[in-house]
C-alpha cells in the first residue's frame, strides 16, 4: 500500500512514546497510590454524527495497539473477491502503559441469533461489552475511520466486576493504519488469503452515572 512505510513508522513512534511513558510510570509505582491512576477523561472533538450526548459521560480511554485482520473472501459479484474484515486483535493501554482491555469480534449474547459485534473485555474483572456502529467518519484517508458505537450487549465479570458493563457508547478516534491491503485479493484463487494490518487508535468509553 502506498502509505504503508509512513504509517508503520508513525505507529512505531507511538509505540516508543508509550514505552517511554511506561518506564516513567514504573519509576513512580512505589510512591504513587493506585488512586492516582484513575482517569479524568475529556471527550474528544469529533466530526458531526460521532458525538455522544449527555447524560452520557466519558469515563475511560484506552490507547489501542494491534491489527485489523482481513481475509480474501467471495464478493457480492459472481467470480469476484474482496478483502473482508473478520476481526480486530488489539490491546488497550492506559496513559501509564497498564493493560486495560482486549478488543476483538465475538457473538453478542444479548441479540437473537449469532450476531457478531465489536467486543471489549476488561483485563482485570473480565466485564465485557458488545457494540454496533451508529456513526462513521473518514478523518484520515490513510487510516481506518473514526466510529461511534452504541453498546448493545453487556456482561459483568464472574465476581461482579462492572468496569465495562455499565458502558453505553464507545468512540474510536485518532486512528492510524489498519486499512485493508490494495493488492493480494484480485481473483478467486486468492480466496482464503489473510492480511494482518497494524493500527493504533484511541477508544473512549461512556456511561451514565
Structural key phrases:
mainly beta; 45% strand; eight-stranded antiparallel barrel; 209 residues; single chain; 8 strands
Structural description of this entry:
With 209 residues, the protein is mainly beta. The protein contains one helix and eight strands, in the order αββββββββ. It has an eight-stranded antiparallel barrel with strand order 1-2-3-4-5-6-7-8. The model is unreliable at 18-37 (pLDDT under 50).
Number of domains: 1
Structural class by secondary-structure content = mainly beta
Q: State Rg.
A: 18 Å
Uncertain segments are 18-37
The strand count comes to 8
Task: Using the alpha-carbon principal axes, give the shape.
Answer: globular
Mind summarizing the main beta sheet? Answer: 8 strands, antiparallel, barrel
State the helix count: 1
Order of helices and strands: HEEEEEEEE
- Write down the overall mean pLDDT: 88
Helical residues, percent: 10-25%
Order of strands in the sheet with most strands: 1-2-3-4-5-6-7-8
Layout: helices, strands, pairs:
Blueprint: H1 4-27, E1 56-74, E2 81-93, E3 99-107, E4 116-122, E5 128-137, E6 146-155, E7 167-177, E8 194-208
Antiparallel strand pairs: 1-2, 1-8, 2-3, 3-4, 4-5, 5-6, 6-7, 7-8
Amino acid at each position: 500500500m502506498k502509505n504503508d512505510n509512513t504509517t508503520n513508522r508513525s505507529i512505531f513512534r507511538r509505540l516508543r512514546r508509550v514505552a517511554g511513558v511506561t518506564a516513567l510510570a514504573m519509576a513512580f509505582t512505589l510512591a504513587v497510590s493506585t488512586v492516582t491512576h484513575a482517569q479524568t477523561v475529556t471527550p474528544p472533538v469529533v466530526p458531526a454524527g460521532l458525538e455522544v450526548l449527555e447524560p452520557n459521560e466519558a469515563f475511560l480511554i484506552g490507547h489501542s495497539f494491534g491489527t485489523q485482520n482481513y481475509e480474501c473472501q467471495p464478493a457480492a459479484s459472481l467470480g469476484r473477491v474482496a478483502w473482508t474484515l473478520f476481526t480486530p486483535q488489539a490491546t488497550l493501554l492506559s496513559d501509564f502503559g497498564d493493560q486495560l482491555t482486549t478488543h476483538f469480534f465475538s457473538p453478542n449474547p444479548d441479540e437473537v441469533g449469532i450476531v457478531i459485534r465489536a467486543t471489549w473485555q476488561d483485563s482485570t474483572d473480565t466485564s465485557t461489552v458488545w457494540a454496533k456502529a451508529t456513526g462513521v467518519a473518514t478523518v484520515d484517508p490513510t487510516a481506518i475511520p473514526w466510529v461511534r458505537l452504541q453498546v448493545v450487549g453487556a456482561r459483568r465479570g464472574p465476581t461482579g466486576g462492572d468496569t465495562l458493563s455499565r458502558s453505553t457508547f464507545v468512540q474510536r478516534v485518532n486512528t492510524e493504519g489498519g486499512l485493508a491491503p490494495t493488492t493480494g485479493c484480485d481473483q478467486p484463487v486468492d480466496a482464503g488469503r489473510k492480511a494482518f494490518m497494524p493500527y493504533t487508535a484511541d477508544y473512549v468509553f461512556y456511561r451514565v452515572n
